Amino acid sequence: xxxxxxxxxxxxxxxxxxxxxxxxxxxxxxxxxxxxxxxxxxxxxxxxxxxxxxxxxxxxxxxxxxxxxxxxxxxxxxxxxxxxxxxxxxxxxxxxxxxxxxxxxxxxxxxxxxxxxxxxxxxxxxxxxxxxxxxxxxxxxxxxxxxxxxxxxxxxxxxxxxxxxxxxxxxxxxxxxxxxxxxxxxxxxxxxxxxxxxxxxxxxxxxxxxxxxxxxxxxxxxxxxxxxxxxxxxxxxxxxxxxxxxxxxxxxxxxxxxxxxxxxxxxxxxxxxxxxxxxxxxxxxxxxxxxxxxxxxxxxxxxxxxxxxxxxxxxxxxxxxxxxxxxxxxxxxxxxxxxxxxxxxxxxx
Length: 349
What we know:
Layout: H1 10-20, H2 34-38, E1 54-57, E2 63-66, E3 73-76, H3 77-85, E4 94-95, H4 128-134, E5 138-143, H5 157-163, E6 166-170, H6 177-189, H7 197-218, E7 223-229, E8 233-237, H8 243-250, E9 254-255, E10 268-272, E11 283-287, H9 293-299, H10 302-305, H11 308-311, E12 315-318, H12 326-342
Helix pairs in contact: 7-12
């Protein structure tokens, strides 16, 4: 199962999720997530931190003030991937998934390579000793509510905050444009050129958004569901909770909104695989943390393969955890646009 749960059990749930994602998790026509495939393993190059005192106010309203701009930065994988796009070296350690179980880069790091970062923990628990040894000046983390940092066990937060100030970027219950802008703002404060790579990546994102909107306008009746799964259950995402899915809705994608989503903090509706046909979807967006397309298809229960969308191979990757960089998100939108263009909206007829 792949879940993002804004509650005190998030850490344990995410570890189980990372180990259990086995179904509906890759991309039609490609064995690699589109963001990773579009990227380069070459370094983006570091930027020069601005001189003088440095201040940044995070999404909790907490101000971090230092005598000089931080040079050694630690971050969760998704934020690290976004900062990397703009030339910010995340040398203070990265916590979260860098590689999938099959060895391919995780969608969480976007256009970066796993080799660009040093791991200091998985998706649920930081190695406190390894993080402390890096001596970060600040630690940046994506937040799924006002208190829960992705990748930081709540019981570890006090220890983490003793190592360095923590900066929170809120990502849930808002369109992805907001955390994208905040990560770009943070990168600019750290020395990235707002008229250089940030501007170029944002322009690509805006162009990709327009193309995606046009594709959705051409197929308003195309019903889409974002899903994940475990060996015994299927999970249908509730779009308003997710930064990417809520943005896709803004751009006209006709996404299923399950009405029975009391579990996982409202992020999912849980179904049995026998209920896979509950929604007559034409296109399946499959959680991208499960590995290659071939391995995923082998693990989809036979009862679900009869879904018309799956039978017609109308399935595209959904990077449920993705880097908060404009360039990465432009690549994700480009892949989705191709899938919408190619999908038959009458597959359930």
